[in-house]
Amino acid sequence: MPEWFLPRWDAPHVLGAALAEGRLAFRDRARLDRHQEALAHTHLRWVLPRSPATADRFRAAGLLPERWRELPPVGKAWTMGHFGTLNTEGLTLEDVLRVGRAAEATRDFRPTVTGRSGEVVVGLSTGTSGSRGAFIVSRAERLRWAGVMLRHLLPRWPRGLLTPQRVAFVLRAEGGLYRSVQHRWLDLHFFDVLRPVEDLAAALTAYRPTVLVGPPSVLGALHAAGASARPARVVSVAEVLDPDDEAALASAFGPVVQVYQATEGLLGLPCAHGHLHLNEAHVHIDLEPLGDGLVRPVITDLRRRAQPVIRHRLDDALRLHPQPCPCGLAARRVQAIVGRQDDALLLPGLAGERLSVWPDVLRGVLADVPGLREYRVTQVSPHALTLDLDPCTPDTAADATRAVHAALNRVGVDTLPLSLTAQTLIPPPAGHKRRRVTRAWTPPEVP
Which pTM value belongs to this model? Predict the structure, then answer.
């Protein structure tokens, strides 16, 4: 999942979008569904004449626009393969990649490209799934997203606007969307995670943010390096927020909420109670069952025009909360973003079958290993896991191995032929997303 972003400041438009967002806090599911259908009707009438790739999908499926919910889903490979005829700005993938790569190489995120609607910002995904994706965002879309974020993330909205707010974005890339903005009551500042961690910690301390945004692993490293701040709100982005991270960040900095953002759209935002809800006022989300109570999103962004996202299947696995939220919103509540589907371990079952073991099965037990600060579990073959541990002492290795064996036994894995190798964790390079449980081995029948 890519990091959360905000555009350069344009106060009247952003405030207007923030105020409009308040009218979209649906408490009745039927009204929310009608709202989505009306948005889809207007959206497709605009997109289909301007996005040949989208129109071709409807023709190939033999569907009229009003049957958009039946359109077969596509994924990232299709989107990148049809980029030139999918986007409505007249841009080629080569042009977009050239600008995006140059920005990341030079750390100068000011250059944009000119599309049919004017200035277009370019961004690149982090390539968590093995290949990098590109995305483009128009000015109108940036302003709308800024208003949505302002509404959901500033503390004590709208009273929080009466006092100066300093929002720190600690992220891998600015992408032209996190640029520092000076305003008499709102300042947005980008902190580049590729800077040395000690320098970054000192700069963050000096900035004294009222809102702190970043991946949990990076924010934890900054605290360990001496960063001191007491923001009114900490916003976790870009990585899975495990319960141990949430507790540590709350203790280090302050109250923690989560944003669910992918290259394909802004998918989840916190409510007034701090709980994560799907962003269903702007994005239609179908949920495909994966088993074990997990679901996979198929999303249709009902606002995004520069790069339309219509029935796009993500690789994420979510767990919805079984109880309604006390905030009363009709948008579905997310209990956990478990991780990517291709992070599920494929291990032998007791009856000889192959079992899918989701990352959260192991994350909870390893968080309880005494003295273990960080870890990574990787499946490297059908019957072998490596446990990268920090620190990797005889005690942490023995305790982590026992914890993994016990957790796998509880979900029906045959651990007798399973090999677990403990070794010292080598931290990933700066800017890389943390993935605590991953699968590096793919069975022959799985493409």
Answer: 0.88
